[in-house]
Write a structure and sequence with these properties.
three-stranded parallel beta sheet; D-Maltodextrin-Binding Protein, domain 2; 360 residues; 2 domains; 10 strands; 16 helices; single chain; alpha/beta
């Protein structure tokens, strides 16, 4: 969900190594600042074996297969971490070894505690919203009064059809798109009712003819390069597209909007798999992630909000003061979270999503 792979600063390995002098981290790409990782290796004298993935499903499959060899993983809290926790895939954290826990935002910790009672198994890393990324000039040219801060921008066929010629992309994620479609309809975004999910699927089907592609990362470069003009995606990804577009030879003005109807609040968490080969080293790495300097540097890299209140003073004002990254209270009041649901409900959601993408 994040960014292309960064240049090798730490060791990348197809299969994690096992040994006392290392820690095996499996994470989204470019999710921790390179200079901070280098500092951790120097201070801890631990070698970081760092491998990356671009979807929660890939991580989930590795964890469920068992003996993954990883010491630290970073799933999205709901629904993935929730289901993995219920399956007994994580070790409880020894909080006595995490001296930097006090740096964490109480509000984010309270949200996470809904999934992990007592915050016993995971620490929050980055968080953000899902929303609307758009090419300002291209959209204005086609639709001067475009509702760019509304879910109508991506779910109303009368709107989407008018900008389809310049390219529209949407996340390939039922867990992100269906809740937004439900909120667009004025329904509970966390509804698991079959009839509600069917209504959400119908909303997406109505705009399916105008969507060029469903993908959860390609829209970054597509927006930045002017290949598409509209995307429903993750906040930090769209900020990255904005920054890349501003530096490109053929500059594009890319903007992001949190839908006024409300948005999904997602939280990515760091946790230690139950069968981690180096659990003590994992805790040292988690404590490093909790250091304000590491969190602040990583927020600068990704464009995502971190859960570390002590890091706020270290952030540039264009991040800490950006209401699209750190939304004000009235906007946060409209953010929602989703729960995992049963296996049967998950299968139904997957079936409907497949039907949407295939047009059947």
């Amino acid at each position: 969900m994040r960014l292309p792979l960064f240049a090798a600063l730490v060791a990348f390995a197809a299969t994690p190594a096992i040994g006392q002098g290392q820690v095996n981290v499996y994470n989204w790409s470019d999710y921790i600042a390179e200079d901070q990782l280098k500092a951790f290796e120097k201070d801890s004298r631990l070698k970081v074996n760092y491998t990356t993935y671009d979807s929660n499903e890939i991580l989930d499959a590795k964890l469920r297969a068992g003996r993954s060899g990883y010491d630290v993983v970073v799933p999205t809290a709901s629904p993935f971490f929730v289901r993995q926790l219920a399956a007994g895939l994580y070790r409880p954290l020894d909080k006595a070894k995490l001296k930097n826990l006090e740096n964490l935002d109480p509000e984010i910790m309270a949200q996470l505690a809904k999934y992990d009672p007592g915050n016993a198994h995971a620490i929050p890393w980055m968080w953000g919203t899902t929303g609307i990324g758009y090419n300002v000039a291209a959209i204005k040219k086609r639709l001067p009064d475009a509702p760019v801060d509304s879910l109508r921008m991506v779910f109303d066929p009368a709107v989407v059809s008018k900008v389809a010629d310049c390219g529209v992309m949407m996340l390939d994620s039922a867990t992100d798109v269906f809740p937004a479609a439900l909120r667009y309809l004025g329904l509970d975004p966390d509804s698991k009712k079959t009839e509600d999910l069917a209504k959400a699927a119908d909303v997406v089907k109505a705009v399916r003819p105008f969507i060029r592609k469903f993908h959860s990362s390609e829209y970054i470069n597509a927006l930045a390069g002017g290949d598409v003009c509209l995307a429903f995606g993750y906040s930090g990804d769209i900020f990255q597209a904005r920054d890349r577009a501003a530096k490109a030879k053929d500059k594009q003005d890319i903007a992001y909007a949190i839908p006024r109807e409300g948005s999904l609040l997602w939280i990515d968490v760091a946790a230690v798999p139950k069968d981690a080969p180096n659990p003590d080293n994992a805790l040292r790495f988690l404590d490093f992630m909790l250091e304000p300097k590491a969190a602040a540097a990583s927020s600068e890299l990704t464009g995502y909000a971190n859960a570390n209140t002590a890091a706020t003073a270290l952030l540039p004002k264009d991040i800490s003061g950006n209401p699209l990254i750190y939304p004000p209270a009235d906007v946060r009041a409209k953010l929602y979270t989703i729960t995992a649901g049963t296996a049967e409900q998950t299968r139904e959601r997957t079936r409907l999503w497949t039907a949407v993408k295939t047009g059947r």
